[in-house]
Amino acid sequence: MVISVILVTFISLTFVGMAVLTQMQIAQMKTFWYDKAQVAVYLCTDESQSENCVSGAATDDQKTLIEEQLDSDTLAPFINEYWFEDRDQAYENFKKQFEDNDIAALVTPEQLNETYWINLKDPSQSAVIQEGLSSQSGVDQVVDQRTYLDGIFQVLNAGSITAISIAGLMLLAAVLLIATTIRLSAFSRRKEIGIMRLVGASNRFIQTPFILEGVFSALIGSVLASAAVVGIVHYFIQGYLADRVMAVNFVGVPEALLVAPLLILVGALLAALSANFAIRRYMKI
To answer: Which residues form the FtsX extracellular domain (predicted)?
Structure first.
């Protein structure tokens, strides 16, 4: 039973540690990618169906008006920099992006939008650009790239919540197992407990060894979970993923070492509360 407590605590707290690190990774990625996210002002093509594109592809005069808007006192304070991408540049970028896809052979430069790419000083202020340019003649649509990132982070958050839910169920199993183990241990020593009562030992004196037994078992599982979390980060995330996915700044061993004391504290606290509750109930029987 003690080995079972150690194993369940180890597995459940490993899930908890990885869930915490996942949340730290998501927060770190949001800070990094949201700062790099751009606002794309797509200009009209001959095939655009937007209300602003009734006259066909954007003209040079319309482009001039858009640039005047971007340089105006209304929008300029929010913009760090912007640049123009013509159809030929868009086509070259498209071919690079889909070089192994058959769709690249079906697209021509005339089908692609000319685009103004805008880097904002504060990415959260993208609504100002959208409001200022969405109704501009020659503008097909204004897209904040953060909307694409939101979908990715929602998936990551869903995975993190799933891991937390599994960890919560396993922690509950660990708590119940600790309580059962303590009660069985007390039952197997009922003669010794009876003798201790006869010689005047207090309930606290009798209960303490059983509580410590649960805490020590959970501590061993917590230490193993902390070592597993640090090992996963060092050997798998930093030693494998980081070398293959260089576009992402992954969490490292320092973050894992910050999580380790939390796991040990949670394991010891849950074990102490569970064991204390179980032995108190048993002593009243």
So the answer is: 38-142
